[in-house]
Each structure stands twice: as C-alpha cells, then as structure tokens.
C-alpha cells in the first residue's frame, strides 16, 4: 500500500471526543446483524468500557459474531486477564496482541471497528472515559481529552473490513465458520442513497507490506501543499525527512502550524522541544496544548485534504506500531476538521523563538541529549528504519 487508494460513494461523519464517538459506536453495535470487528490499544472497563462490553454482549446474544483485539501493553496485563475471562464467558471472541513482547516491541496502536462490512470507525479514541488519563487511569483530567474519530459508511467500510480480517487472521486461527462468514454480506446492497458522498482512502502502517505507508502519504501531501498545513499530534518526534518536509513547505510560503501535546511525558516533551529552534527559524508556527490531554492525530492541508487516525508523528507510530488512518479529499469535511483544529489552537500556547532561546542553557542541553537518546533507542528497536 504505497499510495492511497481512494474510493467514492462514502458518507463520513467527524466525531470529536468520547461524547461524539461512543454513542455512535454503541448504536452501530446494537444494529449489527452479522459480525463485528473491534481493535483498540486501550480497553479499560470503567463506566465507558462497561457500556461497550454490554453492547458487545447484546450483539452476541443476537448471534452476531463479535471479534475484539486488544493490545497487551496498552490495556495492561491485569486488565487483559479480567477481560479475557469475561469475554470467554459471554462468547466474545478475542485476541490479545503481542503479550509479553513475543513479537518484539511492536504494539497494536490502531483504533477501529467494522460492523457488518457496512459501517466502520477509524480514529484515535481508545475505549475509556475522556476524563481519565490513559497512562494513569486512577487520575482524572480537568477537561475531556481532545481526540477524533470518523464514522464511515460506504465502499471504504469494505476496505477496512478486509484489513480487520487480515489482522484477525494474523493474530489467531480462523475457523471455517469465520471464513464463510466473511462473504455473507458481500452481495447486499451497499450504495448510499440520498446522501452526499466523498472521496476517501484507508491507510495502515505495519511491519509487512506497509512499513512506511503513512509517512509517505504525509510527505506527498505536505510536498504539494501551497497554502496551509495544520498538523496536530500529541507526540512530535518524526524522522528527518518528515521535519524537512515541514520546513520546505514553510520556505515555499506555506503557512505551517504545528499543534503539539504538552505536559504528559517529560522526556517526550524534551525530544519535541529539541526540534523547536530549527522549526521556528524555518518559519513553522508551533503551539503547545496544555489545557488537557491532547490525543488527536489529525491534519488538514489547503482546506481540501484531511487525515484522522491513530498515528502520532513520532518514531513509534511512523516506524514500529500497527496504525490506521483515514485520508479524505473533500472540502466540506476538511473545513469542518479545520475549524475544530483552529479552536484547539486558540486554547494553546504559542512558542516564540526568542523566549525559547532564553531558557537556561542546561535545559536546552537536556533537550538535545533527550533527542540523541531517543534517536538511538528508535534506531535499535526499528532496526534502523527511524530516519
């Protein structure tokens, strides 16, 4: 999957935060008649997770085949054991991805769901309360975590379904019943009637055919930008080619705005800050989001091209983990996402070159040291791919 394969006849709905996402997800699960595939990095059985589990159980009671893949590290070994026992008892089929690092350091970081091949969800939202820290689930946030997902209805849902089947097959055995079940809905009507449809594509990153697909799509989009790039990422630590693409766009007169999460991980913040001097000198505008946890991984270019997904702009997402994004060529969708991004930017803190360079020398030295350590670690665990 070296390039985006766009399909038409899609209806998309942008969903922001859990308040927008979870009701839509539960409604789709409750309407399922054949099969459900759900993948998530974190599945935490709090008040939100319980609602999802209950919906999945209701689906099983209707004889719907339910398949869930959870990441062992993201969800946590203890929670995985609890969920496994409950899933076994209720008839939910499940796989735990890469327990005890048996497949190396790779993680299942993508968040997607496909229902009856007709409806799909792709984004960055894990299964847990928006007000709960995802890395310390006993603590609560002061404001809901900022994140996005997309509800997809149409031909692209079938593409996402095929990818979900592929990973389910890779992570466990596929029964004859499941193999036959794949084709159950292929001949049902999938056209969307009385709806404005858009052009959209689905891209993944894995360690097989799609090792650099998401980065390539970003590089191509940034390389052809002529007006504006809005890039949102919780963690910013891409390779040199990605950073150079941002600088090159700014040098062409493109307005490049980078919104980065701040305050979550001290070392991660330091790595991102090591890039600030060059980015700012090259004309990139940098903002730090400190109001709450920034978890959205989205971008809009020239108010025409947009992406929403699970991939951060860092070494783990671009060079190691399993990730999934949707890419959209549609002005209405792009402008809606742009408005949401601009609102977040209005709540963020701009980074100024002069004030940054006036920070104590030992802090700036630590930023560079953190970058060197991060680069060394990334090159080791990605077998030299991080560049």
Q: What does this molecule look like?
A:
By secondary structure, the chain is α/β, with parallel strands linked by helices. The protein folds into 2 domains: 7-199, Endonuclease, Chain A (2-Layer Sandwich); 203-381, 2-Layer Sandwich (Endonuclease, Chain A). It contains 14 helices and 17 strands. The chain has helices at residues 17-30, 47-61, 72-75, 77-90, 155-171, 176-181, 213-223, 240-251, 266-274, 276-281, 315-319, 331-346, 353-357, 361-381, and strands at residues 7-16, 35-40, 65-71, 93-97, 111-115, 119-123, 148-154, 198-205, 228-233, 236-237, 255-261, 285-289, 297-301, 305-309, 313-314, 323-329, 349-350. A 15-stranded mixed β-sheet has the order 4-3-2-5-6-7-1-8-16-14-13-9-11-12-17, sandwiched between helices. A hairpin with a 3-residue loop joins strand 13 and strand 14 (305-309). It is globular and about 60 Å long.
> How many discrete domains?
2
User: Between the first and last Cα atoms, what is the distance in angstroms?
Assistant: 20 Å
Q: With helices defined by DSSP (H or I, 4 residues minimum), what is the helix count?
A: 14
Going by CATH, the architecture of the largest domain would be 2-Layer Sandwich
Task: Count the beta strands.
Answer: 17
Which structural category do the helix and sheet elements fall into? Answer: alpha/beta
Unreliable spans are 185-191
Residues in helices, as a percent range: 40-55%
């Amino acid at each position: 999957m070296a390039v985006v394969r766009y399909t038409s006849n899609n209806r998309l709905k942008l969903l922001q935060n859990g308040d927008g996402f979870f009701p839509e997800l539960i409604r789709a699960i409750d309407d399922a008649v054949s099969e459900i595939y759900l993948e998530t990095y974190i599945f935490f059985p709090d008040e939100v997770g319980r609602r999802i589990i209950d919906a999945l159980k209701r689906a099983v009671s209707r004889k719907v085949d339910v398949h869930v893949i959870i990441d062992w590290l993201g969800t946590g070994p203890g929670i995985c054991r609890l969920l496994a026992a409950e899933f076994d008892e209720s008839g939910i089929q499940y796989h735990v991805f890469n327990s005890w690092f048996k497949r190396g350091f790779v993680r299942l970081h993508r968040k997607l769901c496909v229902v009856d091949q007709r409806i799909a969800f792709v984004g960055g939202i894990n299964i847990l309360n928006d007000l709960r820290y995802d890395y310390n689930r006993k603590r609560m946030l002061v404001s809901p975590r900022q994140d996005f997902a997309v509800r997809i209805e149409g031909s692209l849902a079938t593409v996402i379904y095929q990818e979900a089947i592929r990973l389910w097959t890779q992570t466990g055995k596929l029964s004859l019943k499941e193999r036959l079940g794949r084709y159950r809905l292929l001949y049902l009507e999938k056209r969307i009637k009385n709806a404005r449809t858009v052009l959209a594509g689905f891209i993944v990153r894995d360690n097989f055919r799609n090792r650099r697909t998401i980065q390539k799509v970003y590089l191509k989009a940034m390389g052809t930008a002529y007006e504006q790039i809005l890039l949102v990422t919780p963690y910013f630590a891409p390779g040199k080619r990605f950073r150079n693409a941002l600088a090159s766009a700014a040098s062409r007169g493109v307005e490049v705005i980078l919104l980065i999460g701040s305050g979550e991980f001290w070392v991660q913040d330091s790595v991102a800050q090591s890039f600030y001097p060059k980015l700012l000198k090259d004309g990139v505008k940098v903002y730090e989001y400190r109001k709450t946890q920034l978890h959205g991984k989205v971008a809009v270019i020239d108010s025409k091209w947009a992406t929403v997904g699970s991939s951060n702009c860092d070494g783990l997402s671009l060079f190691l983990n399993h990730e999934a994004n949707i890419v959209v060529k549609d002005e209405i969708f792009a402008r809606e996402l742009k408005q949401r991004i601009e609102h977040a930017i209005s709540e963020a803190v701009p980074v100024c070159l002069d004030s940054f360079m006036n920070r104590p020398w030992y802090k700036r030295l630590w930023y560079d040291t953190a970058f060197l350590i991060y680069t060394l670690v990334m090159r080791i665990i990605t077998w030299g791919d991080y560049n």
